[in-house]
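It is worth pausing here to work through a concrete case rather than discussing structure prediction in the abstract. The textbook approach is simple: state the sequence, then state the predicted structure, then interpret. We follow exactly that order.
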Amino acid sequence: MSVVAPPAFAPRNLLLCLSHLRWDFVFQRPLHLLTRAARDFQVVYLEEPLFEEGAESDLRIQWHGEVLVATPILPPGAGDDAIEEPIDRLISLFQPSRFLVWYYTPMALPQARHVPADCIVYDCMDELSLFKNAPAQLRQNEQDLLGLCDLVFTGGESLFEAKAGQHPHVHCFPSSIDSRHFGKARQAGRDPEDQSGIPHPRIGFFGVIDERLDIALLRALAAYRPDWHFVMLGPVVKIDPAELPQAHNIHWLGRKSYDELPDYLRHWDAGFMPFAMNDSTRFISPTKTPEFLAAGVPVVSTPVRDVVRSYGVDDLVEIAAGPIDMAEAIERLILRKHDAAWRSAVDARLAQSSWDETWERMRRLIEPRLSQPPASIRAERGLRHV
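Step two, the predicted structure:
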């Protein structure tokens, strides 16, 4: 392992993030926040390990802008202790004066529990224990992390309500928006080659395609309105691609980069979020909701609680439970795309939220803790274990 600092690098406080998501998977909450955190910290993003035959415990590293992404490379069967030594070597290169550890997954706790952090943040963006194939020990690891961390951030109101009684310092930070980026979709521009031949009306979805998507609803909706075309963008994970419905008016275009999304969205007549109503969606607060709106694409969602409370009650997003209701909602949305009053209401709401402001509010909660003497930090954590 060797680390070559980018030209702008200078020693400063270190933020070590431990995440279950690959940096280059889908541009979502962790990447939005940590690219902004890099203005104030040296950020190291530690991914889950890759297991390779014949490998010795090491870290594969790569700079993404000012964020250093590190991937543990381990031999098959290696345990959490095999990651400790590469982590320690990486940290020693930076020799930070103060040290912030930021968790997205409680499963990383055994790997970094030994790290002498000045502040520990748990940014709980999903109820991972309810996702498909969740590890059996995840719930216990989360309880241990809640007993250890100094601050808990949640990705939506439902998660906040679920975690508020489990820690004295829980703060709600719902999904924010980069309005400038998605606002590009409101301007004239090219239609991507793999979409340009698809007839209108186009109803679009973008995001991870997994157990949270209601496949039966999509199938029924496409059959009910064969004259509409459903454009599906995103990687397929944790479900068998063979189970995805196939029809002349369902178009699976695969994963697109964050930079490409406005080019696709500007040519959609409406958006839809056909989330299944099950345990895996009980606490979600989809980041794509404000992204659809910033792009000027009217959208309908199944009755996900945080979408209903944050956008549905104010008529910014349509809410529908089944294929017929959703089809009726989409008919209204196609007309709404050019509704100036709706756009004005959307813009007023989005002006209240940005990833820049969200990071700044988080930073203001973190900074006082980094200024505390280490002895007082240890004492406060000890009290939470009593």
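Step three, interpretation. The two ends are 40 Å apart (CA to CA). The mean pLDDT is 92.
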